TrEMBL record:
Compositionally skewed regions (Basic and acidic residues) per UniProt: 24-33, 209-219
Region Disordered, annotated ranges: 1-33, 158-182, 209-249
Source domain of life: Eukaryota
Protein name per the record: Uncharacterized protein
Keyword Coiled coil recorded: yes
The entry's keywords: Coiled coil
Coiled coil: 44-78
């Protein structure tokens, strides 16, 4: 429009302005209303006809339902199936059986309650104790038999060991070692003679055998096994026997 106003005859600019104002005052939209046309008027008439038809159909259905209910009510009064057995022999027998069943169940419930009471009383009086004694069973009898056999076996082994020790001790005492007592003091030689030439090998080994590990009374504390030797007087050399030999480091 600006291009048109710039290229228009100046004498007609006033007319063009009036036209522009007139065009700007109208809204541009699509005409989607058909009610002012033949199709819209036909739609309104069809809606009225449909509403009237539905009303007639509803009235007819209501009338038919009322007639059906009346007919069914009349038929129930005229013809009805007799489904009541209480006025017949089967109905009376059914009532009698139900009564007997109820009485029987009551008696059974009372008997069960009485029996349960006795059981519960017996349980309450019973001490709950676990049977941890197997001596009255086969395993317990076997245990006793094995213990007796073990005692007999150990006694026999002890007797055999005692006999062996006695034989070994007798053999040791019967040994007559030949020892040159010239290097020993008079006291030791006298003891050797008093014992009929018998010398205890253990005492001899502890006191007189060559042992570079023999301790002196002034040495530091000894291990436990040497302390036992000192307890029995085995670790101190007689001064007459031999000179003190220092422990070699």
């Amino acid at each position: 429009m600006e291009w048109l106003s710039g290229n228009t005859n100046p004498d007609r600019k006033g007319e063009l302005s009036a036209v522009q104002k007139l065009m700007g005052s109208h809204e541009k939209h699509t005409d989607d209303d058909i009610m002012d046309e033949e199709a819209g008027r036909a739609r309104i008439q069809m809606a009225k006809d449909s509403k009237a038809r539905k009303a007639r159909e509803a009235a007819e259905l209501k009338k038919k339902n009322a007639e059906m209910k009346a007919r069914l009510a009349a038929q129930r009064q005229i013809a009805r199936t007799d489904d009541n057995l209480d006025d017949e022999e089967a109905g009376r027998m059914r009532h009698e059986l139900a009564k007997r069943s109820k009485e029987r169940k009551a008696r059974e419930a009372a008997a069960l309650s009485k029996s349960n009471s006795k059981v519960f009383m017996a349980i309450a009086k019973t001490d709950n104790k676990e049977d941890d004694d197997i001596m009255d069973e086969h395993a317990g009898k076997m245990l006793i038999a094995m213990a007796a056999a073990s005692v007999v076996r150990m006694e026999k082994e002890a007797t055999d060991l005692k006999e062996k020790n006695k034989v070994a001790s007798s053999r040791l005492k019967s040994m007559k070692p030949k020892v040159d007592m010239a290097a020993f003091p008079e006291k030791s030689r006298q003891k050797y003679a008093d014992n009929d030439g018998w010398v205890d090998p253990y005492v001899f080994q502890s006191k007189f055998a060559e042992d570079p590990t023999r301790r002196h009374p002034d040495d530091p504390p000894a291990p436990s096994w040497l302390s036992r030797h000192e307890k029995y007087g085995w670790s101190v050399d007689p001064p007459e026997a031999r000179p003190y030999t220092a422990k070699v480091a």
